[in-house]
Design brief:
Order of helices and strands: EHEHEHEHEHEHHHE
CATH class: Alpha Beta
Largest sheet: 7 strands, parallel
Shape: globular
Structural class: alpha/beta
Strand order of the largest sheet: 3-2-1-4-5-6-7
Number of domains: 1
Length: 253
């Protein structure tokens, strides 16, 4: 248990009211961490934090924030520190994908939104927590990327570009922050059954594609991803940085 024990650790998880982010927050709390639940809608944040606190009293707070707002993200960090005293773990999970179709059809506004929310906001948040992590000589940062960043796609090109950039962001920041014992890694999920990816799986063609092209013959579930986040945040992952863990049922192999 010691390898995965997060007792005394404090985590921020963005986009943690549903899907992968929620599963990660729940599993971090289960392993002993205090967790800040965050997404745009306050009522949903309260609901998820309340459910975690019902199982693990005092383990969660709700801090609604929009990742497109630097001020919101700073408030998320400040309120987490005010409640729990520090931030040891940051999981950058929230992302945007407002467009489905070929790159030739995406508007400049939509393209910029994807890049801003999926890359720049992650760098903002990391910059906000890294100095204090450096002072304590300990920190774990996890960026939820995607296998979309590893290969071409005809329908989610801007999203895939942003996710490839997240992998490079992790590599660059690992070089910068590792001397302070701050580890920065990515998780690259395949197609997971979440509301965010519903257009890709919630149809007969999507299910058939999973059965035919995924060696494990199914789409992923959010909890299939959460264990990797626990690993990367805990002592078990203490010698891993600058890497991307692919969890995709075998698709990319």
């Amino acid at each position: 248990m010691e390898l995965f024990d997060l007792t005394g650790k404090v985590a921020i998880v963005t986009g943690s009211t549903k899907g992968i982010g929620k599963a990660i927050a729940e599993r971090l709390a289960e392993h002993g961490a205090k967790v800040a639940i965050s997404s745009r809608k306050g009522a949903v944040c309260d609901e998820v934090a309340g459910a975690i606190n019902a199982k693990h009293p005092g383990a969660a707070i709700a801090v609604p924030a929009n990742i497109s707002s630097k001020e919101d993200l700073q408030r998320l960090v400040d309120e987490t520190r005010a409640a729990f005293g520090k931030v040891d773990i940051l999981v950058c999970n929230a992302a945007s994908n407002p467009y489905y179709g070929p790159m030739s059809g995406i508007s400049d506004e939509a393209f910029r939104k994807v890049l801003d929310n999926n890359i720049i906001s992650n760098n903002w948040l990391i910059s906000m927590v890294a100095p204090a992590m450096a002072e304590q000589k300990d920190g774990a940062i996890v960026i939820v990327s995607s296998i979309g960043g590893l290969r071409g796609t005809p329908v989610i090109g801007a999203y895939a570009i942003s996710k490839a950039a997240d992998m490079q962001l992790a590599r660059n920041l690992a070089q910068e922050l590792s001397p302070s014992n701050i580890r920065v890694n990515c998780i690259a999920p395949g197609l997971v059954k979440t509301d965010f990816a519903r257009a890709l799986w919630d149809n007969p063609e999507g299910e058939a594609r999973a059965r035919s092209s995924t060696p494990l013959r199914r789409h992923g579930d959010p909890d299939d991803i959460a264990g990797a986040a626990v690993f990367l945040a805990s002592k078990a992952g203490c010698w891993m940085t600058g890497q991307t863990i692919v969890i995709d049922g075998g698709v990319t192999c």
